[in-house]
Amino acid sequence: RRSEDFWYTDSGIILIAEGVACCVYQGLLSCHSTVFRELFIFPQPSYAETMDGCHMVYLSNSSRDLTDVLRALFGSDLYYSWPGEHPAFSVLAALVRLKHKYEMKALRDQALNDLKAIFTLQACPNTAPFEMTQQDAITVIALAHLTNTHSRLPMAFYVCCQLDLDCIVNGSEVDGCREHLSTDDMIKCLGAKLELAKD
């Protein structure tokens, strides 16, 4: 089905995630993403699927994450333009994941800087410019490993230690997506939780 937010009739490429089709500007994607730029270098085969004359590219991402990233790309400040002053933390997580995956370096670094500002030893989720919960620390740990930004880990692990055992072991669910700690991270978190309980 066509996206209600991203369907530009004069654009050149259709991105599809979870059955949601977004018709967007190929040139803008190429400008910001090394992965898409290299993809578009090669001519599409004659049998490639098209819709309204535009080639279709199927992505393995969630439609929610794709929409968040496109909103960042097509927003007036090229970062995000959500209503209100405090978008959900899941938006920032989506930006980090997809910008990392599709090598949108400038935008990825901007999102990582926001993540760093939240989860360092000098800051905590209570002061974040995003709507956050303690469970979001599980996502932060995964993002820190993904992007090799380990300075986020100490505070994120500390926040995880405040979670109940069920959440640490089984993860947390946000908008239908479940985030888990890896086995190693779960062991670290449980060990730290026991040590903190002794104090």
TrEMBL record:
Origin: domain of life: Eukaryota
Protein name from the UniProt record: BTB domain-containing protein
